[in-house]
From TrEMBL:
This is GAF domain-containing protein. Coiled coil: none annotated. GO terms for molecular function: L-methionine-(R)-S-oxide reductase activity. PANTHER family: FREE METHIONINE-R-SULFOXIDE REDUCTASE, GAF/PUTATIVE CYTOSKELETAL PROTEIN. Gene3D superfamilies: 3.30.450.40. Belongs to the free Met sulfoxide reductase family. Residues 21-150 form the GAF domain. One of its GO terms (cellular component) is cytosol.
Amino acid sequence: MSEQYRELSEQAEALVVGESDRIANAANISALLFNALQDVNWVGFYFYDGRELVVGPFQGKPACVRIALGRGVCGTAATTRQTQLVPDVHAFDGHIACDADSRSEIVVPLVHAGELIGVLDLDSPLPGRFDETDRAGLEAIAEIYLRTLGDRS
């Protein structure tokens, strides 16, 4: 993991330590990433409500409120439970354009104890903004977030 993501992971840990409220933690992690990462225009969470993804805490322009599973980059990440790294959103079949300025996107699925919780979504106005370093760093931060959920059984 890069030095930047190591530092961000430490900061994320410090923000969520001892806090179990998923909305509060998502809000702080969104703000942390939005303000620390260059060339991003949207950072936020979508939560799975049992039927579809519903927008949660985020930083950036107003967002699409609901996304069906399997639709767009977020819905694909939720369905496949695999991080989606998209260098050009216009080349992604079924892309949902919530912000016309977005050109690249990375979406990390949030799965806890085998249950889909939602996704962590980042957009950039630059094509090819996200890479494998971002994937590893953001997946690590997603894990920090998921650990705050504790045992949901």
